[in-house]
UniProtKB/TrEMBL annotation:
One of its GO terms (cellular component) is plasma membrane. Residues 261-368, 650-762 form the ABC3 transporter permease C-terminal domain. It is a multi-pass membrane protein. The chain crosses the membrane at residues 252-278, 307-327, 347-366, 422-440, 650-671, 698-728, 740-761. The keyword Cell wall biogenesis/degradation does not apply. Pfam families: FtsX. Coiled coil: none annotated. This is FtsX-like permease family protein. InterPro entries: ABC3_permease_C (IPR003838), Membrane_comp_ABC_pdt (IPR038766). Its main location: membrane. Keywords: Cell membrane, Membrane, Transmembrane, Transmembrane helix. It is found in: Cell membrane.
């Protein structure tokens, strides 16, 4: 063993550059695999811990307006599958009446309400995940606003309406298992009972959350159907516990998914590099291997000699990668821990990465063993006859017509002759380009205004939400009357939303949200089919169609007001709002059954969207008025922040990979072609010529790889992004690429890195001379 270790040590010293580059590849693979699994473990632990500590409800029905308390109590008593229930009174405050540091929250998409601490379950927690307590004159602020606006303890939040004004000091930041996520459109502030009584006497509108815990084995769809059939108060959105869990985990899970995806790409690159290095090394040492076999060295010992070298590298990479994954994973877990806490299963973020690194190491070592064994099958005579290897390498013959562009001609000729040697570096360049562009294209897709089409509506300039109020129709009429007389507005469309019953794949009747409005004004891109036309067609969201088992052309029966309505499915679209389960049809909802009016509008050319939005907020004091860009940005704010971090990380890693593989490849190729280099010098080629020839070879390969990597990032990247968003209702994403960044800046950065690396890496050609070859 001591002899083997000495041989390995000498080999490491002889091939420092190659060994270092390979070690970095392996360390990065281990780091990202362990880091991604650490984020996954932290996410599962955090979300699970928050849900358990807050005792999150399994079903919430929100309601605005009066209700019969006795009827609700009777409903709970007569349904024995309900384990516990809670009615939460929430005082909704207009965003324009909430002030922080002199600015109102008018631009916020969120509905904001004041509550007191709950009893029984659905507790609001402080940053230590303990039940939050506030005193008179104090307020607990959602962690969402602490992050978005920088609110911290000791700051002052002011509420005012008319002559009434009250200042509340922020005493704690709160975590809300029900409304934590940016995807949840409501946020709860915690105040004392005394302050609630005072503020409610001057301002605000009451909203109620009817919350339920169910006995084990009970489906929320059963409760939802029974609740709606019994005519219980439902002037608001209904939310299941599974949807709350999905919203809480989506953005954090997306980070882990992307990191692990990058890690898998790196593992592929590492295995390719290992394969190439092992084959190149053993090819150079065929004579030595043949000699060892000839003097009686067992094949197993020779195999062990090579395997121990890579085992040391893999073991060192695993240890370093796992250790580095601790701060790396904690950095990317910061968001989920800030929103949800550390959780109750911290062992997950230690065990998951450990298992991942072990499996990664075993996989790489088994691949090394396979390659080594395959290369040791040759007989002694075959190994000693190096001319056989030379024949396999191929030769490049100079053209008989001479060399007009000699460096270019020779470089392309050698590339064509020995193209198999360049497959690995070509694939690494492709993967690196893909790795750089994937998160960058994802981020630009989410930031693109047309991403709104993945939220179930066509692209427009401004969105107005009027929802869940007693004078819903009157407020809608007032808004539309004003908009129709505004000469700066080009087009307006009103969508009204209500609920109907439909039978799911399990045969259970459940309520689905249906939108009624002119779908031709702001048209959607449909996955299949087209928008509904007339009163007999219905379009379904992707998740609804999947759950109901419907395709375009199928018949679907829904119940409304006790009557069966039969529609033909005209199309399937993508929607990541309202849990991804929506539909579009011309159903004539009774005014009392309309829960939300959503108005979309476009302004005329030359009109500032931002100024028009501010003007409408001043004049129209009902509902929420946001630009569509703000709507997308606020809804996906957490996701976009995390993707910005991943984008930067991926670019750095991709450029580092490109540099390392170029250095490693040039080191191997120049050593392998030392005879050819010496001969070129002897017939008159300068060092500069030879370096240019190497550069041309690398640049041609890289150019083709960048083109293919870009195509893959746009096509395969859309499939990967679709897989990530499919749980929310978008299965097919068309990447919305920023051309300047994707097609100019990224390729330029890659080419620049290779250019600098080639200049440095080809200096070795200066030491090769024909006299050395003659002496050999």
């Amino acid at each position: 063993m001591k002899l083997l270790l000495n041989l390995v040590r000498k080999d490491f010293k002889r091939n420092k550059v190659i060994t270092t580059a390979l070690a970095v590849f392996l360390i990065l693979s281990a780091l990202l695999m362990a880091g991604g699994l650490r984020v996954t473990g932290a996410m599962i632990s955090s979300v699970k811990g928050l849900t358990e500590m807050a005792v999150s409800p399994e079903y919430i029905q929100m309601h605005k307006g009066t209700y019969a308390e006795e009827a609700l109590d009777h409903f709970v008593e007569t349904h024995d599958y309900i384990k516990d229930s809670l009615t939460v009174k929430m005082l909704d405050i207009r965003n324009a009446d909430l002030i922080y540091q002199g600015e109102t929250l008018e631009k916020s998409l969120m509905d904001n309400g004041f509550v007191v601490q709950n009893n029984g379950f659905d507790f609001l927690l402080n940053m230590d995940n303990e039940i939050a307590v506030v005193q008179d004159g104090e307020i607990g602020v959602p962690v969402f606003y602490a992050q978005a606006l920088g609110i911290k303890t000791g700051d002052v939040i002011t509420v005012h309406e008319g002559d009434y004004r009250k200042e509340l000091t922020v005493s704690t930041i709160i975590r809300d298992a029900s409304m934590n996520s940016a995807l949840a459109s409501s946020k709860r502030f915690l105040i004392s009972q005394s302050d609630m009584a005072e503020i409610s006497s001057h301002m605000g509108e009451w909203e109620y959350c009817f919350e339920f815990l169910l006995k084990d084995g009970t489906s929320t769809s059963v409760l939802e159907k029974d609740y709606m059939d019994a005519g219980m108060p439902s002037n608001g959105v209904g939310i299941t516990g599974s949807l709350l869990m999905l919203m809480n985990t989506f953005s954090y899970g997306l980070v882990a998914f992307i990191i692990i995806a990058i890690s898998l790409l790196l593992i592929i690159i590492s295995v390719l590099c290992l394969s190439y290095i092992i084959r190149a090394t053993m090819s150079e040492e065929h004579a030595a291997i043949g000699a060892m076999k000839a003097i009686g060295f067992p094949v197993k010992s020779i195999e062990q000699l090579y395997l121990i070298k890579y085992s040391i590298l893999v073991l060192a990479a695993a240890v370093i990668g796992y250790s580095a994954a601790i701060p790396f994973g904690d950095f990317f877990s910061f968001s989920v821990i800030r929103y949800c806490g550390s959780g109750s299963g911290e062992w997950m973020k230690w065990v998951f990465p450990f298992i991942g690194v072990i499996l990664l190491s075993l996989m790489i070592l088994l691949e090394c063993r396979r390659i080594i064994r395959r290369n040791l099958k040759s007989t002694v005579v075959e190994l000693m006859r190096e001319e056989e290897q030379i024949k396999k390498q191929g030769h490049y013959s100079l053209p008989s017509r001479g060399l007009k562009y000699r460096n270019l001609t020779i470089a392309i000729g050698e590339l064509k002759c020995r193209w198999k040697e360049y497959v690995v570096i070509f694939l690494v360049f492709v993967f690196s380009s893909f790795l750089m562009l994937l998160p960058l294209n994802m981020k630009s897709t989410v930031e693109n205004p047309s991403f709104i089409t993945y939220m179930g509506v066509g692209q427009s300039d401004i969105r107005i939400d009027i929802q869940y109020t007693d004078n819903l129709t009157k407020q809608k009429d007032a808004v539309t009357s004003y908009l129709e007389n505004d000469s700066e507005i080009e087009k307006v469309v009103i969508y009204k939303n209500g609920y109907v019953q439909s039978q799911n794949g399990s045969g259970e009747w459940e309520y689905i949200r249906v939108e009624n409005g002119d779908e031709s004004v702001f048209p959607l891109e449909y996955l299949e089919g087209s928008a509904p036309v007339g009163s007999k067609e219905m379009a379904l969201s992707y998740l609804n169609a999947s759950e109901l088992g419907k395709k375009v052309g199928d018949s679907i029966t829904v119940k409304y007001k006790g009557a069966d309505l039969i529609f033909t499915v005209s199309g399937i679209y993508q929607d990541i709002t309202y849990g991804g389960k929506t539909a579009k049809a011309a159903i004539d909802f009774d005014e009392n059954d309309v829960q939300v009016y959503i108005i979309y509008l476009d302004v005329r050319n030359g009109v500032s969207i931002a100024k028009k939005t501010d003007e409408l907020r001043t004049i129209l004091t009902v509902g929420k008025i946001t630009t569509v860009n703000e709507f997308v940005a606020q809804t996906l704010s957490g996701i976009m922040d995390d993707m910005s971090l991943i984008e930067g990380t991926a670019i750095v890693i991709a450029l580092l990979l490109i540099m390392l593989i170029t250095v490693m490849f040039l080191q191997l190729v120049t050593a392998k072609e030392h005879s050819a280099i010496a001969i070129k010098k002897a017939i008159g080629f300068s060092n500069r010529d030879i370096r240019i020839q190497f550069g041309i070879r690398i640049f041609v390969i890289q150019f083709v790889a960048i083109v293919i990597g870009t195509i893959l990032a746009n096509s395969l990247g859309g499939v990967i992004f679709g897989l990530m968003l499919s749980s929310l209702g978008a299965s097919k994403i068309t990447m919305l690429v920023d051309p300047l960044t994707a097609y100019l800046l990224c390729p330029a950065a890659q080419l620049l890195v290779v250019f600098i690396t080639v200049i440095v890496g080809t200096k070795a050609v200066e030491k090769y001379h024909i006299r050395d070859q003659i002496m050999e």
